[in-house]
Amino acid sequence: MDPVVLVALGALGALGAAALVLAVGLQRRGVSRVASVGERIAPDAAQALARAASAEERAAAAVRDAGVLVDLVGIGVVRVAEDFTVVTVNETAARLLARRAAGLPGRSVMEAFTDHRLEEIVQTALRTGAAAGELTIRTTDAPTVLVRARRTPAGDAWLVLEDVSELRRLQRIRTEFIDNIAHELRTPLTTVSLLAETLALEADQLPPRTAERIAKIEVETGHLVQMVNELLDLSKIESGSTALVLHDVDLARLANATAERLSLFAERHGVRLLVEAEGAVPRVRGDEERLGQALLNLLHNAVKFSPVGAEVVVRVAASEHEAVVAVVDHGPGIPRDALSRVFERFYKGDRARTRGVGGTGLGLSIARHVVEAHGGRIWVESEEGIGSTFAFALPLTGPDLAATPGA
Ligand code: ADP
Questions:
Q1: Which of 364, 365, 380 gets mutated to test ligand 1 (max ligand atoms within 8 A of its CB)?
Q2: How far apart are CA 101 and CA 86, in angstroms?
Q3: How many whole angstroms from 349 Cα to the centroid of ligand 1?
Q4: Average pLDDT score over residue span 118-147
Q5: How many CA atoms lie within 13 A of 230 on its CB side?
Q6: Residue of 342, 368, 379, 390 best suited for mutating to test ligand 1, as the one with most atoms within 8 Å of CB
Q7: Closest ligand 1 atom to the C-alpha of 327?
Q8: Which pLDDT does position 111 carry in this prediction?
């Protein structure tokens, strides 16, 4: 999020909290702004009352100012009570949702905004604690609004709304551009790769240096073909041009099948693959092929970065709301400053550490998009010299299909 927005939201939160503390303090001290006419007030009590009243007014004004600031930076804020009644809506939120702010408080979310998607986001946030999704507003220019919702300890929910139309437009242009280039590159590259493969078959009839060079060409073109295919995959997932094919997926079975697919690769690296399922893991609603691809990418990395003789474990477990798949390795680990970057497209760890293991820098980016397209989350925990755990969690209620395309 824009740092200005973060500052504004932080200010709003801090000022809200200050106002609350002040109000509670005033109540505790028995100070009320209502004094009956004719009541005699001792001079020092009257002064204290006046001071408290003006401090209260200052706090209220500060909260109002913070509200103006949030409006100014173009962030919509909505508060919804536990019973789905809209409590507050700032001007920006009303504008983004193509409504008039006045008249919205007191109505139910559905009455106020007539948007099923928004209602779903609020429902999920009130039930699980947090939710996010995107809405396309039904107006002439059909803006895209990103909604993030959080449940408060008091049980109601805050919604933060942001217009992301321009960002999504630029992401679409980038995706189309990469998609076009990848398509153009695929045919000639496949031909070069096949020719290199054919030449490599005749290597024993060639001088050793030539055979060696042909082997190099074969390996490098293989990498290029893989990169182009992964780019095409990524742009397909990002653009949503291939919809998810949803089934009830048994993640423990998927973990076993994926480990099986990689068994030969693991054997060649001298790595032992284990699958552990903790108890009966409920099925999730998802695209089995895509989820398999995400897990394959995590597992492939875990094996690729493991030393000979090491173990890689795939753990499948479930909590109340989510199923979690974790891939644990005892490889070199990831430096702290790289942890936030590994899911970016084309990110590759520093050359000295990854020398010889190859890769396109796209595998984790693909995994992230697949998981997010299922309304899930993906993360990594790692310590240098100890190993890494890459994990993803999927909601047990089914995918949040309006996931956000990202970098
Ligand atoms: P690559 O094709 O380079 O493996 P990925 O997107 O899959 O691309 O991974 C990006 C980078 O993240 C890798 O180059 C590596 O630096 C780091 N990485 C991923 N998985 C692991 C792992 N299990 N252990 C250590 N580093 C990892």
A1: 364
A2: 11
A3: 6
A4: 92
A5: 21
A6: 342
A7: 23
A8: 95
In terms of Cα–Cα distance, which of 194, 200, 202 is closest to 215? 200
pLDDT at residue 353, rounded to an integer: 56
The pLDDT confidence band at residue 55, using thresholds 50, 70 and 90, is confident
Instruction: Give 391's contacts (C-beta < 8 A, 6+ positions apart).
Output: 324, 325, 326, 327, 378, 379, 380, 381
d(CA 279, CA 302): 24
Q: Is residue 404 within 6 Å of ligand 1 at its C-beta?
A: no
Q: Write down the residue that tokens 């949702």 correspond to.
A: 97
Residue 358's pLDDT is 65
Q: How confident is the prediction for the chain on average, in pLDDT?
A: 84
Q: Give the residue among 91, 141, 95, 97 at the shortest CA–CA distance from 119.
A: 97
Consecutive H or E run containing 50: helix 43-72
pLDDT in tens, 273-285: 999 998 888 899 9
Residue 301 Cβ inside 6 Å of ligand 1? The answer reads yes
Is residue 389 in contact with ligand 1, taking CB distance under 6 Å? no
Report pLDDT digits (tens) over 304-316. 999 999 999 999 9
**CA 217 to each of CA 22, 47, 185, 190, 370: distance values in angstroms, whole numbers, following the listed order:** 72, 87, 16, 13, 32
Q: CB of 328 closer than 6 A to ligand 1? A: no
Contacts of 163 (CB under 8 A, 6+ apart): 74, 96, 143, 144, 145
Mutation pick for ligand 1 pocket among 226, 312, 348 (CB with most ligand atoms within 8 Å): 348
**Residue 294 pLDDT greater than 50, yes or no:** yes
* Residue 349 CA, closest ligand 1 atom number: 16
User: pLDDT for 141-190, tens place per residue?
Assistant: 889 999 999 999 999 999 999 999 999 899 888 888 888 898 899 889 99
Q: Full-prediction pTM beyond 0.70?
A: no
Nearest to 97 by CA among 152, 54, 160, 183: 160
Please give the sequence-ordered ranges of beta strands (E in DSSP) within 75-191, or none if there are none: 76-80, 86-89, 130-136, 144-151, 157-163
- CA-wise closest residue to 121 among 151, 88, 165, 95: 151
